[in-house]
Design a protein that fits this description.
The protein is mostly helical. Helix content is 79%, strand content 0%.
Length: 111
């Protein structure tokens, strides 16, 4: 599939894998946050794939814009992960840098 060739898609998949593994380590009381961050990172992956399959430039941009908004949501979740001491400062910085990179790639796809 064409979307698999996009670097933003591949990086989003990597982020989903890493964040999912991180969430599995959390205490039970944070299931709501684990669910939220996993759904948000999944939204980046799914909207990137769907957007890349659209023929209309307007539709493509709309899906990439939704994926980019989901990257902002993931970024906020990472901030909460750090604030609640659910991940180390180093890991949160690594996750955040990857999400920022993905957001920039999506911005490029919207142009």
């Amino acid at each position: 599939m064409l979307h698999e060739k996009l670097e933003s898609y591949r990086e989003s998949i990597r982020s989903a894998e890493e964040i999912s593994k991180e969430c599995a380590k959390w205490p039970r009381g944070y299931a709501y946050l684990a669910d939220q961050v996993k759904r948000a990172v999944a939204s980046i992956v799914l909207n990137t794939a769907e957007g890349n399959s659209r023929r209309s430039e307007i539709e493509r941009r709309r899906f990439f814009e939704i994926a980019r908004a989901s990257s902002a949501e993931v970024s906020a979740c990472i901030d909460l992960m750090k604030a609640f001491s659910l991940t180390s400062i180093d890991k949160s910085a690594s996750y955040k840098n990857r999400i920022i990179s993905i957001s920039k790639m999506l911005w490029g796809l919207m142009r």
